[in-house]
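Team,

Forwarding the record for the chain on the shared tracking sheet. I've put the sequence and predicted structure together so nobody has to dig through attachments.
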Amino acid sequence: MAIQEPSGAPSALTSSALAAIRRTSAVDTVRARISLAVDLGLLAPGERLPNVQATAAALGVGEITVRRALRTLEDEGVVQRRPGRTGGTFIAERPRRRTVAQVAAYREDSERVHRLIDERIVLEAGFAQLAAERLDQPGLDRLDQCVREMDAAGSWAEFHAGDKRFHLALAEAAGLPSALAMYERVTGELYAYFLPYPLDYLRGSNEQHKAIRAALGAHDAALAAGLLRDHVAELHHSMYVGFADSDNAERGDDG
C-alpha cells in the first residue's frame, strides 16, 4: 500500500503503489532479477549461485520462493542444477536470455528507482555529516567489522548483507530516529531492485566504504558527507537502471 502521513496525504517518499514490481509475484521477481543479471552480464555462464538460504536473504524473499524460482529458471534454460557435494545451482553454460517477461516491470520502474536513489543520497549525506561528529570508538569498530565481512565475502549475497549492515550502522550513528525510519523505508524499497553483481566490482565498492570510515574516524564531516554522497550517487550508473539508460542511448532513444 502507499505510505501515508498521519494526515492521510501521500508521503513525500516514493509510493509503493506506483511500482510495477508490486504487481509481480515474489517467485517472478526472483526469476526476473536473476534473468536480468544474466542479460546484463552481471552473472556469467557457469557461475555458481549462493545457496538457497543466502540467496533468499539477499533478495528479501523466502527460501521456498527461491526454490520455486530456480526450478522455473532451470526449465527456461537460464540455470542448471547439479547434484552432489560439489553441486548446486549454476548459470547455464549457454543461458537463454530475455526469457522472463517480468523483467519488463523492472525496466518500467527505472524512473522510480532513480528517485529512490536521490532520496537515499539526501538522507545518507546528512547522516554522514552528523555521524562524523557523534561516532564513538565502538561505533567505528562496528563499521570496521562490516568492512572486514565484505572483504571476506565469498558471494554477492554475503557482500550484500555486510553492505546493508554498514550503511544502517552509519545511519543509526546520526542519532535521528525519525529520519532513520524514513531511511529504512527508502532502502527497503530500493533493495527490492537489487541484482547480483560480480564480486570484483563489489570489492571496489568496499574500498569506498573504507575511505568513508576513515573520514568518519578523522571526524571530517564535510569529507565523510561528500564521499558518501558520491558513493550512493554511483548507483545511478551501477544499478541496472544505469545499464538500461546506456542501452537507450545506444539505440538513440531520447527518453
